[in-house]
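note to self — DONT lose this again. spent like an hour looking for the file last time. sequence + predicted structure for the chain T wanted, 134 res
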Amino acid sequence: MLVRTFPVPDPTFGNPLGTPFCTYLVAYEGEAPDLNAWHSHYFANHTRHMARFPGIRDLEIYTRLDWVSSLPCPRVNFMQRNKVVFDGADALSAALNSPIRHDLRACFKTFPPFTGPVTHFAMATRVLHPQSRD
């Protein structure tokens, strides 16, 4: 997938090396009739709200690429995945309970048409090598 990084107010991680932080992944698993319009709208609008989450440390959007492979792996056609990072589960919970969440829900209602589920996963992540943060 192609990675697009969006700026956040305080991108530094407050956790010591090897201490878990919280990664929140969102997958848009369906399709949009006009994928270009959908991504253009999302990048211009939704990411602006996401970057305002209190305590957000990283914001990346991944979009699919076409590839050629002889490996017998199943292909999925997800249109997008997101990664947002917080110092821990408490910081993620505070962000998801902030007024920004209401702004995101209102923005969601303005998305161009798309089909398929939107899934959310929170997980603990450890950085084991300092250059992994770059």
